């Protein structure tokens, strides 16, 4: 079985190459806005719905009107059309579901940060990335690229540095089968509590870097907009954010790998993190915990290793006793579970993890829900 895997690396372009990369990014952003404008005008004035293929047919005409588009690889331009089409499909999907639609919007200078070679126009030779229309750029290959490279995406981060991400098809490498199973309850006091009693401490990376970030942001706010010093300080702020983001990602990868190596059946809460953050006093702490990222990483690692992962409904997992099924409401400040019916005592999070495990096993049909799991 083949799976998709991403490999990210840092680029070290020269000044000329940075200029060419930025020019390519600017052309892609202009094309995205132009195509979006065409769709809006076609619908408002002609009541027509332009498809992805309709707009791809217009690309040669646009190249004639704007010769600078010739400096961008043809498939990169086609990928911009595809990106806009996906934005509209997501918009209509949300409309049908009754969610907040979020109509595709025009992209400003700092709202478009990447472009993609979807099939060809790139190659990796030793420590260099060769890009069509741009040239060879030095790349830091800190690990070997596995499998077959399918796409190459270049991204400019907030601090002005360039990164490349390769999406590769690699053969899955299943780990030896195990009989172990685990339910995982994520939280704020502890990042995760496992149903067998193990805990994962919450690293709180944002809280640790908050003082340094506040100091840099305070300095930034005092500088005049448009000045060289403000741009320099803005990059320093962005680098602090990058460091915190990378620390979270690294932490999630390490903890997910440990869980996948030790358990065959993994059960996790299906949390709606965005809704939990809306108007919540703990919104900043929830964002810092990065539950969604952890779930995403754990999902693809489980698939690659041949493990079975399932998301379960989190309703009543905290209030229900994992031993007798008695439901009793608890306030958030109550960190201990003390069942009045059967007398079972445990930490609130451990009891929830045991409930998650039981619900997951019920869904699989391997073991019926019963006390003393």
TrEMBL record:
InterPro entries: Cas12f1-like_TNB, RNA-guided_DNA_endo/Transpos, Transposase, Transposase_put_HTH. Residues 1-45 form the Transposase putative helix-turn-helix domain. Residues 291-356 form the Cas12f1-like TNB domain. Residues 166-278 form the Probable transposase IS891/IS1136/IS1341 domain. Pfam families: Cas12f1-like_TNB, HTH_OrfB_IS605, OrfB_IS605. It comes from the Bacteria. Keywords: DNA recombination, DNA-binding, Metal-binding, Transposition, Zinc. In the N-terminal section; belongs to the transposase 2 family. This is Transposase in snaA-snaB intergenic region. It comes from Candidatus Neptunichlamydia vexilliferae.
